[in-house]
Amino acid sequence: MRRIAIVGSKSLLGNERVYKIIDDAITNEMRIDPRLIIVNGGEEGVDEMAGEVAISHGLGYEVVPLEKCTMGCSREYCFEHSYKPRSFAIADQSDKIYRIYDESCGTSTCEVTAKFGDTLGKSVVRIPIDLLFAS
């Protein structure tokens, strides 16, 4: 059973072209192993959309939860102790990672997940979306 991470930008929420990209990626991965499980952080945007598409295909969908910071940082959920460890867990649990992102989003946690995938020797596919042409 293969586990595929599909992560990305919140700003792409509801974009029909992105839904098609997600559906095509899942369909292609199902040809390799129809017992596919989609994994991500369950965030608004691409993560949420990937979950919807996975469920529409009858696939498993798992959300890696975000843990509260217990290290005394100024935020309940900090990057170093909350988002970064979740990004590592997503990459570590996945056989392949798709990062579908808004080119204007800059540095984001979905890229952190992709970089962990690179470091762990996972297959990482980065798909940039230009919102000016994504309709």
Helix content: 40-55%
Poorly predicted parts: none
Q: What pattern of helices and strands is seen along the backbone? A: EHEHEHEHE
Q: Figure out the total of helices.
A: 4
Topology:
Blueprint: E1 3-8, H1 16-32, E2 37-40, H2 46-56, E3 60-63, H3 79-93, E4 96-102, H4 109-119, E5 123-129
What are the main properties of this structure?
135 residues, 4 helices, five-stranded parallel beta sheet, Rossmann fold, alpha/beta
If you had to describe this structure to a student in words, what would you say it looks like?
This protein has 135 residues and is α/β, with parallel strands linked by helices. It has one domain (3-129): Rossmann fold, CATH 3.40.50.450. The protein contains 4 helices and 5 strands. The protein has a 5-stranded parallel sheet with strand order 3-2-1-4-5, with helices on both faces. Helix 1 (16-32) crosses helix 2 and helix 3 (79-93) crosses helix 4. The longest helix is centred in the N-terminal third of the chain and has 17 residues, at 16-32. The protein is globular. 36% of the residues are buried. The mean pLDDT is 95.
Short summary:
By secondary structure, this protein is of the alpha/beta class.
